[in-house]
Amino acid sequence: MSERTKILILFFLWAVYVFPQTVPPNELKKNVQNCFELVKTDPDKAFEEAKSIEKQARGINDWETELQAVMVQCIYFRGNNDFEKMMAGAKSLYKKANLYKSDVYEVIARRYLFEAYIFSGLPEKAFRELESGRELIGRLGKNDSLNITSKGDLFVAFSNYYSLKRDYENQLKYLNLAGREFEKMPDPEYRQKLLCVHYSNLAAVYNDINQLDSAKYYTQLSQAYNENFNRIDIYINNFWVLGNVAMKEENYQEALRYFKEAEKPEGYKNHLNVEDLYDNIILSYKKLLKKDSARIYEAKKDSLMLRITQNQNKSLHKLLKEKEEFSSYKFVYVFIFAIVVLTIIIYIVIRKNNLLAKQEKASQEYLETFSENQAKETYSQLLKMLETGDPAYINYFNEIFPGFSAKLLRINSQIIQSEIEFCSLLKLKIPTKDIARYKFITPKTVQNKKYLIRKKLHIPKEVDIYQWFDSL
């Protein structure tokens, strides 16, 4: 799964059942609860009704209904990927919660602010919102439905943050903390709804860490629960996970079927997950040699990314304006500077990618013309040790090439053991795709590691890296 996905990442699975289960028999309260369901099927209508309910609730001093109406609006903006308005809505929710001295709604507001900032590409600001939310949950009182769900959702947010960092240990830790909260839910049906989401989240994480049997198990468990609730977001995520599992098992036809099934439902889908879904569909079609179909989804992805970039720019511009509103000229300079920096970064990235592609092509040509390894039995033994993850691999390699590590250290004394082990794979002339398979990383990551090794060992960019190691 791509790291974007390690944002896994899982926002579209967060439960929207964060309002109390038992409320006074008041028509306005019933209406706002209906809005939480309506926003899934008719978001525009739900949004208009929520705005009206917010005004009416404020008029009769029903602060809880007022806050819930603002929450519906936040969900609406999230569904439209309108990060600027989502941010404004979350800030409004926080101010109102603070005014009404409601810790639990402040926690909810912090979580929406986290989403708004993370979607706008501001992870550090997002994490500060989570930290503030964690301080607040210590002040929450009894374990009623709202408090339990709010705590659990905040832990899911922490899990999503660590998925972006590829910190799988903390990702799983916080997801399990969320599951413990959901287990406390007193209402059995509501508890099953939350666990249905939780198991789907667990399936995605186990897929990330390549525990495929666990991923399948929790997907099946979530699907079984979801038969009672028909949650579209759960349906999407479960088939998405199954598709990823099938991809890793190199069953591309089955993977494509799962991904297409995940694409079918209408409604809110996290844009990061849609992008990843398109990437996987494109890759599946390419593996199946259906290039025309792949191009259709490449166009869909480009269209999606254009819309998201526009929305991210809007929210970033809003933040810049808030910080620099006292000086319009300064804002203009900051904006121009940001555009220049972004242009330079894009240029550097494109140039680096072109260089990596050129070097990779040269390596492929070199490996194709290189004669078969003479120490065939030794080479096969090393490959077998790599495939099985034998920890004795590097010791055996050093016996075969006794001066290899010392030579690398003479060139750069700062090179570390894991980098020496990676260099050993290049010495053995193992192609990029095979290194990726042995190390459970993507080919792109392998290319980037080669790029860093070149820097550390001062390998000229015009010299093929395999040829360089061959002569070492």
In short:
The chain has 22 helices and no strands. With 472 residues, it is mostly helical.
Describe, in plain words, how this protein is organized in 3D:
This protein has 2 domains: 6-20 and 81-304, Tetratricopeptide repeat domain (Serine Threonine Protein Phosphatase 5, Tetratricopeptide repeat); 358-470, no CATH class. Helix content is 76%, strand content 0%. It is built from 22 helices and no strands. The longest helix is centred in the C-terminal third of the chain and has 42 residues, at 328-369. The relative contact order is 0.07.
**SSE arrangement, N to C:** HHHHHHHHHHHHHHHHHHHHHH
Number of helices: 22
- Quickly name the level 1 CATH class of the largest domain: Mainly Alpha
How many runs of DSSP E, i.e. beta strands? Answer: 0
What value does the average pLDDT take?
83
- Quote the beta fraction: under 5%
Quickly give the CATH architecture of the largest domain: Alpha Horseshoe
- Overall morphology: elongated
Share of helix among residues?
over 70%
What is the domain tally?
Answer: 2
Main pleated sheet: none
